[in-house]
Structures are given as structure tokens and as C-alpha cells.
Write a structure and sequence with these properties.
Keywords: Membrane, Transmembrane, Transmembrane helix. This protein is mainly alpha-helical. It has one domain. Helices cover 60% and strands 5% of the residues. The chain has a two-stranded antiparallel ribbon. Helix 1 (3-21) packs antiparallel against helix 2 (26-34), helix 2 crosses helix 6 (92-125) and helix 3 crosses helix 4. The two termini are 21 Å apart.
Amino acid sequence: MNVKEHLKLSTAAALLAAPWLKQDTLIPYAASIFIDVDHYIWHAITQRTLSLSAAVHFFQQADPPQRPAAKFLHNPLLLGLLLFLAMRLRSRLLGLILAGLTFHVCLDAIHVTQMSRLKRTLSEEAHHLCAECGTYFEALQLHTVHVTENIIDRYNPKHFVVLCPTCHERAHSK
């Protein structure tokens, strides 16, 4: 899920929670957005650059590597530890931070599930033939051809196509 979608959904959740959380609404809201700093930190360490634009470019490539080390703040063990500390210390602050982090991780899980389903379905419908070059490829890659502003329509198959890795990389370099 891209940053813009996380912002929209986190904003909607914060607005819904505001009557109950009042001024504390910003705590889970900020946590749900800033959790992705782990991707930037991983990129800065592994690529030895502090360039934010280089990190954005890296993660927007056709099929960026999905390494657990790049998602250390998303780790269930870290979330479990935070839950333990929040309960043990009876800390409202840690609980609110955990709520924001958990909301983000849940959005990511939904996104991965939906994208995997789309990839499988579209690959089967295409008989594992690349939509661009027609080459048979067992593991086609999902490519977004239209980014909709409507979050509800986000996972509509009409917005995607399956491509072989070569054509997918070519589509991202255009």
C-alpha cells in the first residue's frame, strides 16, 4: 500500500476515533504513518545513502525486495513486546502507539492478501502469458496500470495487468 493510501485511511480512522481519544488522537495517527520509517532506515544502511528520493525510487521499482529487516517496526514480536510493556506499565501512551502501529500492519496485511489474490487470478485468466510480450511465465508480476483515487475501488482487476519481469521492469522505467 502506498503512502497516500495509508495517509487517507489513517486520517479516516483518526477522525472516527477523535470523539473518544480527543487530543490523544494524534498519537496513534502519527504511529500509523511513521512506522514506515523502518523502510527508509533499512535503505539508508544497506545502500549507504541518506537520500530520501533514492529510497522512494528503490521501493517504487517494479518488484522491490521484500526483506523482513526492512520492516523491523512491523514485526509481530516488536508489537507483542510493546503490548506487554503497555500492559505491564499501564501506559496509555504505549497503548495508543501500539494501536497506530497495529492499524498500519493490518492495512498492510489486507493489501498483501488482496494483491496476491489479484496476481493469482489475473495470471490464471491470462494463462500465465505476459500481457505485453505474450511469453509464458509461471510467476508473472502484478503491475498497476491505473492508480485510482477511490480507495474502495483500489483492488478492482481492471486497474492491473500481469507482466513478465522484463516487461514489468520496462513498464516502470517509462
